[in-house]
């Protein structure tokens, strides 16, 4: 038995992963802020398969309630079973897309809470539970090349991706003798998602790379989310085909 937690499960890659991870021995725990989309996804999946699916409508910007969310999720674990846990830290926001001088307090707080604070607490809670109960825990972080590349008007997104990467690297350092804990960050490439659409529609004058993303879309070079989900499932969920703690998925597609 394996519990697979997916944040940002109602859209894009998160939704695709929920549809791809369809094994009966895996319990899906889906977290997303859009309750309507989340419930619709759960209903669709329940009609298609015999798999336990738990849905938690939750906005990760509500940091003060993340602890309660995780306590409720952990209560769902059946301690009588020999189970594993996988967290796919997928939810994130790129907004606001604007230059540093135009950032507002509410936008800074929201972005960093969704991208750093809430994931950090979720990871901490799961590691504590796994260590106390001798359970195998995989953490798969959906990252981006932006974690090490400054991009104009993406100050918060770049910062948050870099911060969560360092958080995970410190976590690995602290648990270097713990064979039950596996951590990987993935750069899936530029995917055809709602986030990409919002990037193309951005009006920030400081976003100099906007035309690059428009060209990728026009030239049909955006990576299909279902193809990315299949690679993640086959190589990092069903298996652990890992080289290092940060991997770009380009090689998996170039080899096909």
TrEMBL record:
CC terms in the record's Gene Ontology section: cytoplasm
Family annotation (PANTHER family): SEPIAPTERIN REDUCTASE
Signal peptide, first to last residue: none
Keyword set includes NADP: yes
Keyword vocabulary terms for this entry: Cytoplasm, NADP, Oxidoreductase
Keyword match Hydrolase: no
A GO term, aspect molecular function: sepiapterin reductase (NADP+) activity
Origin species: Soehngenia longivitae
A single BP term in Gene Ontology: tetrahydrobiopterin biosynthetic process
Compartments where found: Cytoplasm
Name of the protein in its database record: SDR family NAD(P)-dependent oxidoreductase
Top-level division of the source organism's lineage: Bacteria
Positions of transmembrane segments: none
One Pfam short name: adh_short
């Amino acid at each position: 038995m394996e519990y697979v937690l997916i944040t940002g499960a109602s859209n894009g890659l998160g939704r695709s992963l929920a549809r791809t991870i369809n094994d009966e021995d895996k319990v899906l725990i889906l977290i997303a802020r859009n309750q309507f989309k989340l419930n619709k996804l759960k209903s669709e999946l329940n009609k298609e398969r015999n798999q336990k699916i738990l849905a938690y409508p939750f906005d990760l910007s509500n940091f003060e309630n993340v602890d309660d969310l995780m306590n409720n999720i952990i209560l769902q674990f059946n301690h009588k079973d020999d189970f594993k846990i996988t967290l796919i830290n997928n939810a994130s926001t790129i907004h606001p897309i604007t230059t540093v001088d135009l950032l507002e307090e509410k936008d800074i707080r929201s972005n960093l809470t969704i991208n750093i604070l809430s994931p950090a607490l979720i990871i901490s809670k799961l590691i504590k539970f796994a260590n106390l109960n001798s359970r195998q825990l995989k953490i798969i972080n959906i990252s981006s090349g932006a974690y090490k590349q400054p991009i104009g008007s993406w100050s918060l997104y770049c910062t948050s991706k870099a911060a969560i990467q360092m958080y995970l690297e410190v976590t690995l350092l602290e648990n270097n003798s713990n064979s039950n804990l596996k951590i990987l960050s993935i750069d899936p490439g530029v995917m055809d998602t709602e986030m990409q659409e919002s990037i193309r529609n951005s009006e920030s004058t400081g976003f100099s790379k906007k035309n690059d993303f428009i060209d990728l879309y026009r030239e049909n070079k955006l990576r299909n989310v279902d193809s990315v989900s299949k690679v993640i499932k086959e190589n990092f969920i069903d298996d652990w085909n890992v080289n290092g703690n940060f991997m770009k998925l380009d090689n998996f597609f170039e080899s096909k």
